């Protein structure tokens, strides 16, 4: 069993990509952006209003999320409207939210 695990748990490109995704989710403002985009498509200007962050901060966070294929932008005239790249990310975020809520109940 140990040899089997040793063989399958080595560092791989897939594992590195998984860690990069978790790192992208490791920032409160990026998670806030994902939660906002789970409700509707939004422009950078709209995200600044909703999240009360600067335009440069929003743009920086969106750049990181785009690099990890978590969000995508669609041009509409002069604006780009952002949305989630797919619904897989909300499955991950939903599971984490359930886990946190479950642990809070245990600690009450």
From TrEMBL:
Pfam family, one: HTH_5
Residue ranges of every copy of the HTH arsR-type domain listed in the record: 10-104
Keyword Phosphoprotein listed: no
SMART domains in UniProt: HTH_ARSR (SM00418)
Keywords associated with the record: DNA-binding, Transcription, Transcription regulation
UniProt xrefs under InterPro entries: ArsR-like_HTH, HTH_ArsR_DNA-bd_dom, Metal_resp_trans_reg, WH-like_DNA-bd_sf, WH_DNA-bd_sf
Molecular function GO labels: DNA binding; DNA-binding transcription factor activity
PANTHER family: ARSENICAL RESISTANCE OPERON REPRESSOR ARSR-RELATED, HTH-TYPE TRANSCRIPTIONAL REPRESSOR CZRA
Descriptive protein name: HTH arsR-type domain-containing protein
Biological classification of the source: Bacteria, Bacillati, Bacillota, Bacilli, Lactobacillales
């Amino acid at each position: 069993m140990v040899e089997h695990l040793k063989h399958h748990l080595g560092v791989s490109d897939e594992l590195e990509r998984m860690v990069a995704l978790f790192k992208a989710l490791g920032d409160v403002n990026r998670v806030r952006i994902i939660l906002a985009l789970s409700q509707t498509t939004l422009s950078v200007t709209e995200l600044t209003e909703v999240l009360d962050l600067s335009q440069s901060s929003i743009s920086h966070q969106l750049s990181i999320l785009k690099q990890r294929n978590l969000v995508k932008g669609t041009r509409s005239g002069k604006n780009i409207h952002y949305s989630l790249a797919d619904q897989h990310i909300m499955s991950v975020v939903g599971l984490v939210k359930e886990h946190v809520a479950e642990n809070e109940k245990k600690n009450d």
